[in-house]
């Protein structure tokens, strides 16, 4: 009898735990409507980048009779020099931008977290070596390197771009994670885990990682923003070849080819990607606001 | 006007706290951390205020300086300090001058309350300037004398940074800073917590001596009854924001009336005598959100609980040599002593032996949770 | 049983390259933790008692000496081979607030060591759930309430009980409690202390209690030995009641004299001893041939500043028949402990 009772007890406990977590995430979001807005916007962008481009037939229809049309219901952001709908360009261009940002964030966060955790946990010689590598990473001049690389690669795929930006951007996180790990490993619970004979991978994964998870999650979101700005900037400045479909290329053409800065009628072509970037930034900032409460049980449970 | 002149020479000032209530704003509304506390510090005495975490003792102490920080505020009552008036009404510059000027406060973490980037001497000069002290040289000389009085090399200490001083030395520096502007009411918040036994004994001796030499009215706040026994003339016991017992130290320790005081004293292991005389107090202290809003605050842990305790707040009233807030012992006001016999008569259903046995219905806390915090894990 | 022989530990303070100071933390300490027994280390902060506790728990290295756990000499084993032995020794931290991971529920904190244990002993997954509830019951907590909660939702006393339950997950033979109640509300302290006492009785675990509070050490194990440690040296050792009633070393006497007296309930000892200098004011001469306490000792004479009294063995005059050993050239029994007032 006790077996059954205990079994159900245990199952109930675990199920409750999981439900508690999502329930509290929901509560945290509800506490400020702005957070909910952020999540909705993020989901919108995710949809835009993943499913969105599939909704359009390529090549996009051109209508030379309506070059640079003003915004209308049919064309929310007007049309471009070929009479193509700017909104559809925006949606198609979003995939490259968002995928690059995602890859950058994943690469830099994985690398930064791993290096920081290992260096802070192991200390000693390994720490010294990893931190020198981190210092080198922090001092690599990004722009010139990309210029050089662009002579070899065209960066037409999001993978190359994301990988390069990610490999350039993990140093700061590594240093921050290391310093947090160093202070955490002196805490009683880490020592207790060692005393109980729990393996190192447990200590790193279960004891050290969760307390710094909110920081890492926030860092990941913020690095999305950084990655978007970096790549759009590179294309806009013409550092990268102005080919392919993405927001940076759109901006570059709007400003340098079509004089959007001087011709008001062509302004929507430039404003559309800017607005998209702005909304994305706002969405991320709003979600970051909820992050600390989601991860910190002290704030989560009232 | 009276603020810049030194205290009147006719002896140490008195402190009269009346109906003081301090509330904290929380998600559940404004909750009282200190409720309806009235207490006198007789001039020239050392009063020891004892309480556990969440009892409101530190909040009460801060009220003496009118220094309760938001989200807390003093919502009612007065704190009259001789020669100064009602501190609760003081504002702005007058209040700032009074703090440190007439009322010296030695903070709880005197070990950490010094500025790590400035020498003690620099902090002393800052203190002097902020209180418009004209003669800073005299101030430094006074500080040096005080430190020397406490067995330290004044010149060296004034030249030191916080990290160069040991815990006991920092505590003495804290006392010096509290007294150097000639304060006559001194509040010491946990003056010996985190100090070693010998250092603690040393500091307590210093507090006692300086108190007598300078003619002070002193309030020592602590969780340790032993500290009060060593240093104080009067003891005041707080629980759940209420004052539950106050009286002369030896009388209260030798014959505690309130069940909480009794339980607290019984829970102290002794150096000699029968080891099993020490008995744990069942239940756990309330927090701000679990303090019952009507009836006795201690009833959930009390062995003498009666029906009236659930609904009626016991009055803090005089019973012989002391003040007690308890329904079970209050009628004893007509007697001068309370023997265990008379207590048993008063509360036929429960006897003192119930304390610490852990064999009563578990205390239901405010959050509706039953937690066994007794000394007996009875299921193996 | 755990024994230590001549344990030496020196901390190297990292100043600059030219100024490397060595701070002796332990100067050749011997100890025995008998099976099922209770001993205590008494001393002020910085005396080395915590370092010694951590060494015994395998959390700190030592420079010299020998530790045997269950008859096995640890220095003969490689680091990895030592681990299963040191696991029989569990340390209860002073601070129950940092001893539990704030981001993990009690359920999670208890289950990881239990799962490891189940794997080692070939027990089922179900056993881990049963065992977690059993242990929480044992330490006086309600599993249904505690398991799904985070540490911050529990009081200090409950947390310390959880910490004790977690230490018990690996079936230790020795529990080391380092000032285990100093951060807990006073009305809850005795509950934790009597829990430790109960565990010793019920599970047969040995207790090593590390504290500066002699009275709590007596409460935990009045039938065991008390070790009074001063600046890395055991200066007096013997049955707890003997040390309290008739201490002979002036430092022990000073320590006992400093304990607050509950006036009204107790009266102070008749022959209280006060050190001539505060610990922080005392200038400690370089270690050499002198008694470590001599600069603060009210009874020191020429011999004390020219010779170093070792505990017991070095000098025959330093032993007495009651099983007590000390390190003082001029042992005089003094009655310093407070005694209860006899009432009619």
From TrEMBL, chain B:
CDD domains: ABC_NikE_OppD_transporters. GO terms for biological process: peptide transport. Keywords: ATP-binding, Cell membrane, Membrane, Nucleotide-binding, Transport. The keyword Transport applies. Its main location: membrane. GO terms for molecular function: ATP binding; ATP hydrolysis activity. InterPro entries: AAA+_ATPase, ABC_Ni/Peptide_Import, ABC_transporter-like_ATP-bd, Oligopep_ABC_C, P-loop_NTPase. It is a peripheral membrane protein. It is found in: Cell membrane. SMART domains: AAA. Belongs to the ABC transporter superfamily. Residues 337-380 are annotated as: Disordered. One of its GO terms (cellular component) is plasma membrane. This is ABC transporter ATP-binding protein. Residues 15-265 form the ABC transporter domain. It comes from Phytoactinopolyspora alkaliphila. It comes from the Bacteria.
From TrEMBL, chain C:
It comes from the Bacteria. Gene3D superfamilies: P-loop containing nucleotide triphosphate hydrolases. Residues 2-256 form the ABC transporter domain. SMART domains: AAA (SM00382). This is ABC transporter ATP-binding protein. GO terms for molecular function: ATP binding; ATP hydrolysis activity. SUPFAM superfamilies: P-loop containing nucleoside triphosphate hydrolases (SSF52540). GO terms for biological process: peptide transport. Keywords: ATP-binding, Nucleotide-binding, Transport.
């Amino acid at each position: 009898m006790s077996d059954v009772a205990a079994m159900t007890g245990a199952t109930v406990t675990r199920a409750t735990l999981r439900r508690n977590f999502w329930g509290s995430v929901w509560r945290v979001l509800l506490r400020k409507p702005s957070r909910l807005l952020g999540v909705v916007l993020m989901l919108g962008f995710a949809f835009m980048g993943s499913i969105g481009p599939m909704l359009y037939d390529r090549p996009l229809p051109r209508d030379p009779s309506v070059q640079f049309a003003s915004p209308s219901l049919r064309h929310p952001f007007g049309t471009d020099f070929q009479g193509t709908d700017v909104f559809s360009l925006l949606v198609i261009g979003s995939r490259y931008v968002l995928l690059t940002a995602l890859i950058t964030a994943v690469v830099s966060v994985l690398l930064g977290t791993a290096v920081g955790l290992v260096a802070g946990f192991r200390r000693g010689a390994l720490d010294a070596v990893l931190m020198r590598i981190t210092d080198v990473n922090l001092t690599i001049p990004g722009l010139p390197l990309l210029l050089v690389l662009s002579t070899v690669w065209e960066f037409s795929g999001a993978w190359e771009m994301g990988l390069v930006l990610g490999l350039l951007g993990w140093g700061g996180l590594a240093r921050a994670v290391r310093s947090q790990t160093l202070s955490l490993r002196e805490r009683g619970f880490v020592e207790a885990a060692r005393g109980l004979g729990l393996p190192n991978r447990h200590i790193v994964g279960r004891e050290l990682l969760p307390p710094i998870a909110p920081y890492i999650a926030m860092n990941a979101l913020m690095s999305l923003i950084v990655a978007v700005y970096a790549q759009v900037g590179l294309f806009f400045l013409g550092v990268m070849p102005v080919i392919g479909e993405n927001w940076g290329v759109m901006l570059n053409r709007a400003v340098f080819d079509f004089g959007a800065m001087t011709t008001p009628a062509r302004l929507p072509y430039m404003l559309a990607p800017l607005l998209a970037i702005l909304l994305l930034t706002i969405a991320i900032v709003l979600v970051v606001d909820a992050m600390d409460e989601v991860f910190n049980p002290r704030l989560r449970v009232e | 006007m009276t603020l810049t002149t030194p205290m009147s020479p006719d002896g140490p000032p008195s402190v009269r706290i009346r109906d003081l209530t301090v509330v904290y704003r929380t998600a559940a509304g404004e909750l009282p951390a200190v409720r309806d506390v009235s207490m006198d510090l007789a001039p020239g005495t050392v009063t020891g205020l004892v309480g556990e975490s969440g009892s409101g003792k530190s909040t009460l102490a801060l009220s003496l300086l009118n220094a309760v920080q938001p989200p807390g505020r003093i919502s009612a009552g007065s704190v009259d300090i001789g020669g100064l008036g009602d501190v609760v009404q003081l504002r702005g510059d007058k209040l700032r001058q009074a703090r440190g000027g007439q009322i010296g406060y030695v903070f709880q973490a005197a070990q950490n309350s010094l500025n790590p980037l400035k020498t003690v001497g620099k902090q002393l000069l800052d203190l002097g300037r902020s209180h418009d002290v004209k003669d800073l040289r005299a101030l430094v000389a006074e500080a040096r004398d005080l430190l020397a009085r406490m067995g330290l090399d004044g010149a060296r200490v004034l030249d030191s940074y916080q990290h160069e001083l040991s815990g006991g030395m920092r505590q003495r520096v804290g006392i010096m800073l509290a007294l150097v502007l000639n304060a006559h009411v001194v509040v010491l918040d946990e003056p010996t917590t985190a100090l070693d036994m010998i250092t603690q004994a040393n500091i307590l001796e210093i507090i006692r001596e300086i108190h007598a030499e300078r003619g002070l009215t002193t309030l020592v706040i602590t969780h340790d009854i032993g500290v009060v026994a060593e240093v104080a003339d009067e003891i005041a016991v707080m629980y759940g924001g209420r004052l539950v017992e106050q009286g002369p130290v030896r009388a209260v320790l030798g014959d505690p009336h309130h069940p909480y005081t009794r339980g607290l004293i019984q829970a102290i292991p002794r150096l000699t005598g029968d080891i099993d005389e020490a008995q744990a107090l069942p239940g756990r202290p309330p927090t701000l959100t679990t303090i019952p809003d009507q009836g006795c605050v201690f009833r959930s842990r009390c062995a003498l609980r009666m029906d009236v305790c659930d609904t009626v707040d016991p009055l803090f009233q005089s019973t012989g040599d002391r003040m007690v807030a308890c329904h079970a012992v209050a009628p004893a006001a007509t007697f001068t002593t309370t023997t265990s016999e008379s207590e048993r008569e008063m509360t036929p259903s429960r006897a003192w032996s119930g304390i610490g046995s852990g064999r009563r219905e578990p205390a239901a806390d405010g959050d509706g949770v039953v937690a066994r915090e007794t000394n007996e894990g009875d299921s193996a | 049983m755990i024994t230590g022989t001549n344990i030496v530990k020196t901390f190297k303070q990292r100043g600059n390259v030219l100024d490397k100071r060595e701070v002796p933390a332990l100067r050749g300490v011997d100890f025995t933790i008998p099976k099922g027994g209770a001993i205590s280390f008494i001393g002020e902060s910085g005396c080395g008692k915590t370092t010694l506790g951590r060494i015994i728990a395998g959390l700190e290295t030592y420079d010299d000496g020998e530790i045997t756990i269950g008859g096995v000499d640890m220095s003969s084993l490689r680091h990895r081979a030592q681990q299963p032995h040191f696991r029989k020794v569990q340390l209860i931290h002073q601070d129950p607030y940092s001893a539990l991971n704030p981001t993990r529920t009690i359920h999670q904190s208890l289950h990881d060591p239990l799962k490891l244990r189940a794997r080692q002993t070939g027990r089922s997954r179900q056993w881990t759930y049963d065992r977690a509830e059993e242990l929480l019951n044992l330490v006086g907590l309600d599993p249904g309430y505690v398991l799904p909660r985070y540490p911050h939702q529990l009081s200090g006393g409950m947390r310390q009980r959880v910490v004790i339950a977690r230490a018990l997950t690996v079936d230790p033979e020795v529990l080391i409690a380092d000032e285990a109640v100093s951060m807990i509300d006073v009305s809850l302290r005795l509950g934790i202390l009597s829990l430790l006492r109960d565990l010793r009785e019920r599970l047969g675990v040995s207790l090593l209690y590390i504290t500066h509070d002699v009275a709590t050490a007596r409460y935990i194990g009045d039938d065991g030995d008390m070790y009074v440690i001063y600046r890395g040296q055991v200066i007096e050792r013997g049955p707890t009641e003997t040390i309290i009633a008739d201490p002979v070393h002036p430092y022990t006497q000073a320590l006992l004299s400093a304990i607050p007296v509950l006036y009204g309930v107790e009266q102070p000892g008749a022959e209280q001893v006060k050190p001539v200098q505060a610990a922080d004011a005392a200038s400690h001469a370089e270690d050499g041939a002198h008694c470590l306490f001599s600069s603060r000792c009210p009874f020191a004479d020429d011999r004390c500043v020219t010779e170093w009294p070792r505990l017991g063995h070095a000098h025959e005059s330093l032993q007495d028949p009651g099983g007590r050993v000390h390190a003082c050239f001029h042992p005089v029994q003094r009655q310093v402990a407070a005694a209860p007032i006899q009432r009619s």
